Structure formats: C-alpha cells, structure tokens
Amino acid sequence: MSHKSKNNNFKKHNPNLATFLSIILAGLGQIYNQRFLKGSIFIVIELAVLITLLDSINFGLWGLRTLGTIPGEDHSIQLLVFGVLALILAVILAALYAFNIIDARSQAIKIKNGWKPHGIKESISNFYNYAFPYLMTVPGLLLMIFVVIFPLIFSVLLAFTNYSLYNSPPRNLVDWVGFENFTELITVPIWQDTFISVLAWTIVWTVTATTFQIAVGLFLALIVNDPRIRFKKLIRTIFILPWAVPAFVTILIFSAMFNDDFGAINRDIIIPLFGGSGIPWLSDPLYARAAIIVIQTWLGFPFIFALFTGVLQSISKDWYEAADVDGGSRLQKFRFITFPHILFATAPLLIMQYAQNFNNFNIIYLFNEGGPPVRNQNAGGTDILISWVYKLTFETNNYAMAAVISLIMGLIISGFAFYQFRQTKSFKEEGEL
Start and end of every ABC transmembrane type-1 domain (predicted)? Predict the structure, then answer.
C-alpha cells in the first residue's frame, strides 16, 4: 500500500464512530482503533458485569432508595450497607465506562492525524513501563475504599435516617427523614442545650489542653537547650519518661489520685493543708475539667519537648552570633530566630495535636467516663463530642443522632485542618520563611 493511500486511510478514520461504538459496548471503539487487547479487556469486563453483577447492583440501589418495604422481613441497615457497596461499585464501573469512551475517541483522533496503533507485544511493553506503577496502587486504593470511604458514606447516610433503639430493624423499618435530625439538634431543648454545652467545652478543652502541653514542652525545651545547663541527657530522659508509660495506665492512676474520697491529692495534700473535706474533683464539672486539662498537659508535653529539642539543635549558631553582633536581646532572638524556625519545622505536627485532642476519647472516658452528670442534658460535664457520640451509640442506641454529630465533628476538623495547613509556612518554599 502506498504512503498516499495510508494517509487517506488515516484521514477516513472516524472519531465519532469510535465514540459511538464505545457507547454501545465498551471495547468496540478500541477494536475499531485496532487496539485489540485493550478492547478485549473492556468487552470482558462489561459482559462480566452484565452477567454477574447487574442484578446485585440493582438490588443494592433499590435497598438504598427504599430501605425495605416489608417490616420483619427487610432489614433496613443491611439494605443500607448493600446499597452503599452497590453505589461505590456503580461509580467505579461508570468511571471505567467513561474512560473507555474518552480513550476510544482520543486514540481515534490520534489515528486520524497519522498515529499508528502499536501491536500487542509493544502494547504490553508500554503498559508495563507506564501503567505498572498505577496498577500496583490498585490494592491500596481498594483498601482505602472499603476501610475509609465506605464507612464514611455509611455514617453520612445514617445521619439522614431515624435509626434508633425504638426504631430498629428487623422489627421496624428505618426511614429516610432528611434533615429532621439536624433540625432537632438545634430546636429540641435537651438536644440544643447539650449540643451547645458539649461543643463549647470541646473547643475550650482542645485549645486549652493542647496549648498548655505545647507551651510546657517549648518552655522546657528552651531551658534544657540553654548552653549553661549541665546533664542534658539525664534531664531529657526524665522529661520523656511520661511518654514511655502507656497513656491509659497514667490516666487510670490519675483517676485514682483525684478520687474525691480516697485520692492521694485530697487525702495527702488538700485536706492537710487547707482542711475541709477536699475538692470534688470527680463530682463537680469545673474541677473535673481542670483535672483532665492538667492530666493531658502531663501526657502531651514529652512529645512536644522531644520535637522542639530536635528542632532547636538543628538551628545554626551563626544566626545567634549574627544577632549578638547586631545587639539583639534574648527576647528578640527568640522572636525572630527561634520561634519562626520552630513553627516552620513543626507546624503540621502541632496542628495534628489540636486535631487529636479534639477527638481525644481515651482521657475523657478513662478518667471519669465523661461525668459528672449534668441536669437537663444527656451528656456528662466533661464529655466532648466524641465521647458523647460513644454514649449515644453504645449506651442509648441513638445511632442516627450519633451520626449527625459525627458528621458535624468531621466538618469542623476538616475545615480547621484545611485552613491551618493552607496558612502555615511549612508548605511554602524555604526561601519564603
């Protein structure tokens, strides 16, 4: 065949026909483009889906839409689970189908412009060279879908149902209620009072406890890093010891020490010095909150201390010598040299400390199980949002409202983290510091 006739064949190649064939059956467009291996793979996938998965996907989407129609026989939560899985699978298949159409059309345009399709052997070689790394990420992507995305979608959808102890399958069907749960959270007095109180305390707890542990860790790191301090290794070892002890052990010990009746703090310190019956650490919300802030400061400062110590040792002494030449004071050197370098190196980790304490379930529950009780509220005096969600889920079985609060928590954390990460200098070029 002459070169001229080949060019005519290329020009006659129709991208619209390739697109149309790919819409009719995935892979036909690739076959038309003479990409036989890729087209065969798409055809096999579509036929396999149509034969084996189509009915299951339809059933799952029906269950997701209705949550069942026959009480006692249809299990709404199981249908919701199957529906979410069917929805995820449908999205993945739709993405593959769209990719099939786009791929067929783009390659048809390239062929029309003179590109010659590769043979099977060369296609396999190109696939190995270019697509192999992406193929290796597929197991991790699938794991993320079923470990992260699936529970997240399920929790979000659960917030728009009336799933609770008094409306549980299979005896009763769960219904979609729209934004009714969100409305109740801000209009029904007991939910409104509890939510505002717990949210306010969660914010105060997060900011206060985290800031204290960062401040104590920074203060101790600055002192130990001073060249006039001797026995630095011993001092650092002592300060890091609280970090070496498991946190739940430390919390339980502190819970016993703060006990109103037999705790060492009341019995051996408060009562001998001030008399009376001691401080109600566990039965008064104000004192209980103060106690867990102190405990979290104790638990959190060793990590911050170790982190800041490493950063301080990495700062070049030339900076401080230049500041001495310019007559800079200790405060000025800290403000313009030490502190900016610390923030530049540790800002993401410090943001994570705030996010972690926002959801710090362990200390709240192990210290006093979120108590003491508060009148006209269904959460305890030290409950934060995450411990309140735990109680709603496992103690009162109010799953829908727990999902609503979890969704609000996720939005708060995501918004805070996104804003802070965008603002921090740790994600900018070093020359911009």
Answer: 199-420
User: What 3-state class would DSSP assign to 114?
Assistant: coil
CA distance 147 to 50: 27
Half-sphere exposure of 41 (CA within 13 A, CB side): 9
Report whether 278 contacts 267 (CB < 8 A).
yes
The domain made up of 182-432 has a fold known as MetI-like fold (1.10.3720)
How far is C-alpha 80 from the geometric centre of its chain's CA atoms?
A: 23
Interatomic CA distance for residues 223 and 292, integer angstroms: 26
pTM for the complete prediction? 0.84
Residue 110 CA to residue 418 CA, distance in Å, equals: 41
Structure tokens at 267: 């019995």
Gap between the Cα atoms of 60 and 56, Å rounded: 6
pLDDT tens, residue by residue, 52-63: 999 999 999 999
For residue 34, with 0-12 CB atoms within 10 Å meaning exposed, 13-18 middle and 19 or more buried, which class applies? middle
Report d(CA 363, CA 430) in Å as an integer.
Answer: 38
